[in-house]
Amino acid sequence: MRFPLPSRLAAAAGLALLAGCAQPTPYTQAGPSSAYGYADEQVDSRTYRVSFAGNRSTPREQVERLLLYRAAKLAEEKQAPHFLLLDKEIERETRYYGTAFPRYVGFGAFHHRYYRNRLRYAGIGATTGFLRPSHRYDGHATVRLFEAPPPAGLGVPYETADVLRTLAPAVGVPSAEN
């Protein structure tokens, strides 16, 4: 069966539009227009709570990279050459999407269409279908900023400039060297 050219073009445009909707969360600040992105709050003069919320198209590894990148950007903004991640947590939210296909089991008179439709409205019948899990990840970390290399044993130490240089290409942000 051949479809006319306008129908094929409309279908292709619709698919392209849908494909554009399923993009991973970029490095951007969360706000009133979007719940996805980074946010941070000051705990004390050197400690911040940083978070990054990804959408359902953002894999866990990318959320972890964006969380670490935000910690480094915050350290750069506060002019701290070193920082520690005191704790880090990645939460997963799972929802299941799918389709259900009603399947009516009957015999004799109950297999007849009249009874089958009446039984369906009464809630009797079996259902088959497919469920697909969809995951969304949120990352949270407590970051402590340091002017000098931090003492050993407190957490995972990082150098701000190294993290920014290393992660900038991976998170899709142009590095300062380019």
Give a written overview of the molecule.
31% of the residues lie in helices and 34% in strands. By secondary structure, it is α+β, with helices and mostly antiparallel strands. The chain has a domain at 24-95 and 137-171: Gyrase A, domain 2.
CATH class membership of the domain at 24-95 and 137-171: Alpha Beta
**CA-CA gap between termini:** 52 Å
What is the average of the pLDDT values?
Answer: 79
Sheet with most strands: 5 strands, antiparallel
Described by the principal axes of the CA atoms, the overall outline is elongated
Q: What is the CATH third-level topology name of the domain at 24-95 and 137-171?
A: Gyrase A, domain 2
Q: Please report the number of helical segments.
A: 4
Name given to the CATH architecture of the domain at 24-95 and 137-171: 2-Layer Sandwich
Number of DSSP strand runs:
5
* Percent helix range: 25-40%
Given helix and strand content, the structural type is alpha+beta
Strand order of the largest sheet: 1-2-4-3-5
Brief overview:
The chain is of the alpha+beta class and 178 residues long. 31% of the residues lie in helices and 34% in strands.
Topology:
Elements: H1 5-21, E1 37-42, E2 47-53, H2 60-77, E3 82-103, H3 113-121, E4 126-146, E5 156-159, H4 160-171
Antiparallel strand pairs: 1-2, 2-4, 3-4, 3-5
List keywords for this structure.
178 residues; Gyrase A, domain 2; five-stranded antiparallel sheet; alpha+beta; 5 strands; 34% strand; single chain; 31% helix
